[in-house]
Amino acid sequence: EPEVTQTPSHQVTQMGQEVILRCVPISNHLYFYWYRQILGQKVEFLVSFYNNEISEKSEIFDDQFSVERPDGSNFTLKIRSTKLEDSAMYFCASGRSPYNEQFFGPGTRLTVL
Amino acid sequence: QKEVEQDPGPLSVPEGAIVSLNCTYSNSAFQYFMWYRQYSRKGPELLMYTYSSGNKEDGRFTAQVDKSSKYISLFIRDSQPSDSATYLCAMTRTREGGNKLTFGTGTQLKVEL
Known about the structure:
The complex is a heterodimer. Chain A is mainly beta.
């Protein structure tokens, strides 16, 4: 059964450093998303991406964040200068259409020291 | 008022019990409703996806939607210890460029032997 994969599973970084989180969505999906979940809190939407551009982003997704689909399979989230409060689980999700389910990856745990 | 409200629990039941998990929402634009299961420090796993008001059954799981009351439920029959997890409700409205999911806080369920 196809699934969304994410790498790395855990990333530790120093405050102010850049990180890139990687995702491989399900192959025939066209809609891609990033969410995050701070420990003990609810899952929050960051950004949706379709047709090689951002279609919607949340207030959390400020200028420090960017997304890219560099090739036909990968979808990345970059945080330019990490802050302590960026520490969270980051989930990638994908869907076939805006009217279908979203399938989530296992997440990347980001720890900013 | 929060867009999506979900009782955080924890909810503890004996094995074999029927479990009822509920969410209410305030935004009438929400049209699609999902239930995810999340084990500790893992990605959300899709359980049920519904659109219409009414019931949808899949094995031991039944999802119920009442759009007039802005209320959704997930019933688990014959609960098993392996059902112990956090259950997240999520919902979205239709939007061509992709749909952000709005999650509840999750209900922590423990099924005891």
